[in-house]
Amino acid sequence: MASFEILSAAVGRFFKPLPPQLQIDGLTLTLMLGVLGINLFVAFYERSWGKALASSLLLADARHTLSEVWVTLTVLLGLAGIHYWRIPWLDQVLAVPVGLLVFWSAWEVLQENIPVLTDQAAIPPKTLRELVLSLPGILDCHDITSRGIPGRMIFIEMHMVVEPLDVESAHRLTEAVERLLQERYGPVRVTIHLEPYSHIEGSRT
Q1: What is the reported pLDDT for 178?
Q2: Burial label, 203 (beta-carbon count in 10 A; 0-12, 13-18, 19+)
Q3: What does the DSSP 8-state code read for residue 202?
Q4: What is the distance between the alpha carbons of residues 59 and 49, in angstroms, rounded to a whole number?
Q5: Alpha helical stretches, state H, the chain
Q6: Alpha carbons within 13 A on the beta-carbon side of 17
Q7: What is the pLDDT of residues 109-126, one digit of tens each?
Q8: Does residue 186 sit in helix, strand or coil?
């Protein structure tokens, strides 16, 4: 909606030009530059912590804050064009990339997070099953679900039948599965439900 309003206003002013009404004084310029510096710091700080914590919320807000930085720079450029370079039409010209930037920023956030919101499988169950069964000592792996974003954080749940009957050996196999998944897909959290031999898929009645 914001992108549409910006673009429609910019296009409308091309057909019905208005005299520039933007006024700026020293205090306003100082405040804008101060906000610009703060937003730059916040954007890169949130981005670094978002990657470290695999937080979609922090990464989305960092992208939003960085888009505000570009908007502020564009506004300053438009003001300079009007007051110093005497180019009255520069403001509406620069409004076009600003509108497109707002739209693209929102689209990137939606594109990254819609799979999580709709609980879309992060990794095909068949792929996970084949990978887990490649480890010796694992007889079966089924009822596999996964969600999240590869490269950030994936939550995986599966039911598994292992060859060893003692708890200690079975536990070592579950840890081997977790390490294998982490090596292949990056940050993952795995929940494994161990089951008896009777739960092997081919032996069910």
Answers
A1: 93
A2: exposed
A3: G
A4: 8
A5: 2-15, 26-53, 56-83, 90-117, 125-133, 167-185
A6: 10
A7: 777 767 666 666 678 899
A8: coil
